[in-house]
Write a structure and sequence with these properties.
Blueprint lengths: L2 H24 L6 H22 L1 H10 L15 H8 L10 H12 L3 H4 L2 E2 L5 E2 L3 E7 L5 E7 L3 H9 L2 H8 L9 H12 L4 H14 L6 E2 L12 E5 L4 E2 H7 L2 H22 L1 E3 L7 E5 L5 E5 L5 E3 L2 H15 L3 H15 L11 H15 L4 E3 L1 H17 L6 H20 L1 E3 L1 H9 L8
Parallel strand pairs: 5-10
Antiparallel strand pairs: 1-3, 2-3, 3-4, 4-6, 7-9, 8-11, 9-10, 12-13
């Protein structure tokens, strides 16, 4: 366990206690929800400061709390909008490390300082997150690139954090981590540990780019292999606005197109292409409205991405084909058989429980709706809460082989919810994987 990270977590706890103490002596709180929201915001400020300083695992937990509807900072009902706003800067605007420290990493990895490698190098980063920061540069042929450089020392700190099972549970998000067995925790730790290898990230990023080549909206930066190593990743530069900016000022049509593109990437990559990016935080997308009214969505950061085994992809399709089936009897059977085959169904005797039925309804809502479904933050919260309840009851489980897949979906649902968009999600899913009727013959 990282001693510094442990100390930082204690500081967050102290911030909560101090904020509560101030309420007691100054406002005579009644234990109301409003009191908890104030305390959450104070804790968020301390968490953001500590995560920005330490980077690594603590920053990842803070990033998750900024968009996961079920994430809490110790309050009763989840992090507040104000608390999430405080933490949201960690998606892509965390405090940067010094230009000299970054230059040393580049020289160690590429053999020369950045000013000698690139025709132009911006010493001030354009983005910075949990494990590294991104600098703009230009190649000798005029190509504009983005160069992701791993923070010095972050690898050792993250590996120490991931040796602590309790900390890994926090990376699962909200209450989900409490339900995970040792194998699932190991799978999550392994995936996050893999984010330290930028060569592996480059390889899987190229596979995603091939899978989505020619898509009307999705764009994935091209990797510059000769300028990429295990700690430096160079790629063509993406342009656009953040999801947060588009959510606040984008037109309904821009938000609609952006939501559809993110949905296609999140659901279509595993279901249609057998690829999973398990880290869909809002800072990993840029939305670029075009003069002709179309929208391009750039997908960034493939550190926690990998191919799915065919058997996992195939049983996952059965689940979604069951939801798309309009014959109620066959749909229910196919859906639940898919759950069992995936290892998700832990107790069949709880299928009739209110918690399980609520979860099925929430999961199915976008794809059983003909026409446009309104995907809101409220819907994303309902899905997260329903998932937590059914896992807590013991009716469902998240085994190692599908943990990251379902963690990704809850995260992507939250990102899409930020866009508050009405769109034909059912039609898009059918276009991606069909209805599965032929598979029944």
């Amino acid at each position: 366990m990282s001693d510094e990270r442990r100390s930082a977590e204690r500081r967050v706890g102290w911030a909560r206690l101090w904020a509560r103490a101030k309420q007691i002596v100054t406002t005579d709180p009644k234990g109301s929800d409003e009191d908890d929201l104030v305390v959450d915001e104070e804790a968020a400020k301390v968490l953001a400061a500590q995560a920005g300083r330490l980077k690594g695992g603590l920053a990842k937990v803070a990033q998750l709390a900024a968009y996961d509807p079920g994430a809490t900072l110790g309050g009763k009902s989840g992090a507040t909008r104000a608390a999430r706003a405080v933490l949201g800067g960690l998606w892509d605007q965390a405090p940067a490390v010094s230009a000299a420290a970054i230059a040393r990493v580049i020289e160690d990895e590429l053999g020369k300082p950045p000013q000698a490698v690139f025709a132009h190098w911006e010493a001030t980063p354009i983005a910075s997150a949990s494990l590294g920061q991104v600098h703009a540069a230009t190649l000798a042929d005029g190509t504009e690139v983005a160069v992701k450089v791993q923070y010095p020392g972050v690898a050792e700190a993250l590996r120490a954090d991931l040796d602590d099972a309790g900390f890994v549970r926090k990376l699962a998000g909200a209450e989900v981590g409490r339900t995970l067995d040792d194998e699932a925790l190991g799978a999550l730790a392994h995936a996050v540990r893999g984010e330290l290898d930028y060569r592996a990230e480059a390889a899987i990023q190229q596979r995603f780019a091939t899978a989505w080549a020619g898509h009307r909206a999705l764009r994935i930066p091209r990797v510059i292999d000769e300028l990429s190593t295990s700690r430096v990743l160079t790629m063509t530069r993406a342009r656009g606005q953040t999801v947060t900016a588009i959510a606040g000022s984008g037109t309904p049509e821009v938000r609609r197109q952006a939501a559809l593109a993110i949905y296609e990437l999140a659901w279509g990559s595993p279901l249609a292409h057998g690829l999973l990016n398990a880290d869909p935080n809002p800072g990993n997308f840029l939305v670029d409205p075009q003069p002709d009214g179309s929208v391009q969505v750039w997908a960034l950061d493939f550190g926690c991405a990998f191919p799915l085994p065919d058997v996992v992809r195939d049983v996952d399709r059965e689940i979604w084909w069951g939801l798309l089936d309009e014959d109620n009897a066959s749909a229910a059977e196919r859906f639940r058989m898919g759950l069992a085959a995936a290892g998700l169904l832990r107790r069949a005797d709880l299928l009739a429980s209110t918690a399980h039925r609520d979860w099925e309804r929430a999961l199915a809502a976008p794809v059983v709706t003909h026409g446009e479904f309104h995907w809101t933050q409220g819907y994303a919260s309902d899905l997260a809460e329903a998932t937590q309840r059914v896992l807590g009851l013991g009716g469902l489980a998240l085994p190692a082989k599908v943990l990251l897949l379902w963690r990704q979906r809850l995260g992507a649902a939250a990102v899409i919810g930020m866009l508050d968009a009405k769109a034909p999600f059912r039609r898009v899913l059918v276009d991606l994987i069909g209805t599965g009727r032929r598979a029944l013959r």
